[in-house]
């Protein structure tokens, strides 16, 4: 896989995780196990939301994990409940510093298609089986997903990258190419886990470790490359 292709895929992956990242603090009225499970369920919900539509799930997530009402969360965040950014809009905002307005106009439609593709995979993920506790402060929940069979990007004909074209145009070409590969790849049942770690009164989902959802699913979608 060329450097340009790796950059495009890695950038998409990192943006997807960063867009949804949140710290977790739960209501003290339920048991620790119940609070951890609530965080796990909400984490799935956040990644399963329609990426193109403003959705209250992010605020509901923050409200639930902080043990406050949705109205209190809206007040604390200083946002208008009627002007909530969609995941797609938030991701594009993160990328504006890296691309010119002209490039963003080219990238946006391709980015929408790629985000929707990954979201549909995330929507297949469900909690299944029994919670386990590796330690008294760690809770793990098995998750079953339907994901593309591990893709070997090196074995697939890659689109030509014209160095004279803008970075945005090349990014869009690679994004659409990878989206098509992901959409047409056979699906396979994939088991992963959500880990929630108790830190005092907080219950924090592990977001960055590739052993756990969502990073484990993103890694599976991205498949293998010559860098591995």
Provide the number of structural domains. Answer: 1
Q: What fraction strand?
A: 5-15%
Radius of gyration: 19 Å
**Distance between termini?**
11 Å
Number of strands: 5
* SS summary, helix count: 8
Which stretches of 5+ consecutive residues score pLDDT under 50? 22-29
Order of helices and strands: HHHHHHEEEHEEH
Q: Overall 3D geometry?
A: globular
Which range best describes the helical content: under 10%, 10-25%, 25-40%, 40-55%, 55-70% or over 70%? 40-55%
Q: What number is the mean pLDDT? A: 81
Topology overview:
Layout: H1 3-20, H2 32-48, H3 57-66, H4 70-77, H5 87-95, H6 101-122, E1 126-127, E2 132-135, E3 138-148, H7 167-184, E4 187-199, E5 202-205, H8 215-222
Antiparallel strand pairs: 1-3, 2-3, 3-4, 4-5
Helix pairs in contact: 1-5, 1-7, 1-8, 2-3, 3-4, 6-7
Structure commentary:
This protein has eight helices and five strands; from the N terminus they run H-H-H-H-H-H-E-E-E-H-E-E-H. It is an alpha+beta fold. The chain has one domain (3-222). Strands 1, 2, 3, 4 and 5 form a five-stranded antiparallel beta sheet that branches. A hairpin with a 2-residue loop joins strand 2 (132-135) and strand 3 (138-148). Helix 1 (3-20) packs across helix 5, helix 1 (3-20) packs across helix 7 and helix 1 runs antiparallel to helix 8 (215-222). The longest helix has 22 residues, at 101-122. The protein starts with a helix and ends in a 6-residue tail after the last helix. The model is unreliable at 22-29 (pLDDT under 50).
């Amino acid at each position: 896989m060329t450097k340009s292709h790796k950059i495009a895929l890695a950038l998409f992956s990192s943006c997807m995780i960063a867009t949804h990242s949140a710290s977790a603090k739960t209501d003290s009225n339920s048991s620790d196990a119940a609070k951890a499970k609530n965080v796990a369920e909400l984490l799935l919900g956040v990644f399963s939301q329609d990426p193109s539509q403003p959705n209250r799930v992010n605020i509901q997530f923050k409200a639930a994990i902080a043990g406050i009402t949705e109205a209190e969360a809206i007040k604390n965040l200083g946002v208008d409940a009627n002007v909530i950014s969609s995941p797609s809009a938030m991701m594009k905002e993160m990328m504006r510093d890296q691309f010119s307005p002209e490039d963003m106009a080219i990238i946006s439609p391709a980015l929408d298609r790629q985000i929707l593709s990954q979201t549909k995979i995330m929507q297949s993920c469900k909690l299944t089986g029994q919670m386990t506790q590796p330690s008294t402060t760690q809770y793990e929940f098995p998750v079953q997903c339907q994901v593309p069979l591990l893709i070997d990007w090196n074995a697939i004909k890659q689109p030509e990258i014209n160095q004279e074209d803008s970075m945005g145009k090349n990014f869009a070409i690679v994004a659409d190419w990878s989206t098509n590969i992901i959409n047409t790849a056979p699906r396979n049942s994939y088991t992963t886990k959500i880990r929630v770690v108790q830190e005092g009164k907080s219950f924090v989902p592990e977001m960055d470790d590739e052993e756990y959802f969502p990073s484990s699913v993103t890694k599976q979608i991205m498949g293998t490359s010559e860098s591995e």
